[in-house]
Predict the 3D structure of the following.
Amino acid sequence: MNAYAAERHGEIASTATKPSSDEVTLASAQPAAVLPHTGQGRTPMTDSLRVIGSRRYGTLSPLRYPGGKAALAGFFADIIDILGIKDARYIEPYAGGVGAGIALLREGIVQHLVVNDIDPAVHAFWKSVVGNNAEFVEMVASTPLTIDEWQRQRDVYRSRDERDALRLGFAFFFLNRTNRSGILNAGVIGGQRQEGKYKIDARFNRLTLVERLTAIGALADRITVSDLDGRTVIQQYSHDDRSFMYIDPPYVQAGSQLYLNAFDGRDHKALSTIVNSVESAHWLMTYDTAPLIEKLYRNQFQCRLELTYSARYPGQAEELLVASPSVARAIKSLQTTSAMAGATSA
């Protein structure tokens, strides 16, 4: 399969020379709002956009998140470039590891990063890393990696005491780095008796983590941290032409296992009401492929997101990508360029 590689940033795999029923070119002349999607009485959506994740920026987030989207940084950079946004702001209303945002900020592709999360522990972490970087780094460098310490940090995390943001934020970070898959309600790596193949320190490389955290501290004057409802943040930046919003809310399936502030059906519907009302904004959303979500965003551009790291090998299209009209046009432009490149090289 031929692939289009943007000169500076990410890659989108071309389907020009090897189309299949599950991969269709999005370079359609149809308006974004009426491209194929699932709705009542419609054939289930099979359109898939293959994005080749870019490793050129490295891993910059200090957090571990299942399904993290740091590899999409190049894809986001290409979209921002096509949109022609100057002095761009990158907004995450539901912050996770923010790996893509950190990469875009460090590379100068965006000039400001907004990290928002209503979860007290997540907010405390980012607030501490940005506002008390030296103290946080010292804690990372000196805190012992033992089961006794893990139990202490778990107690701090469970207390949810927001009066000491540094203490709560570090507890969140400690558990994220020492728990299985970074999931906060999972057990410690290696088990309580540390009899497993991997031990509590398996994902806690102090030197690497200190480097990542220190790098974020150097960018602190260009990072805003908030603890608002994600819907409020979306509304706040929806009229700002310089803002690119990446919306990655709690998912429908397995949400309660991964998020303390998991959404129920009412929350998903409430979010869709806000997002569907700001079509003029530059936003891109990823979700799990639940029928509820496809229905809620049936009037928006939708496709399966297939994230891979090689043009030769397919990824798994397990997530849904939804985009505003302006971002959908940018995606189609990238796909058109990809198809042209594929036809030229065929």
Observations:
- Confidence is low (pLDDT under 50) at residues 1-46.
- The beta strands are 3-5, 11-13, 48-52, 89-92, 112-116, 223-226, 243-247, 282-288, 301-308, 316-323.
- Residues 254 and 316 are 18 Å apart (CA to CA).
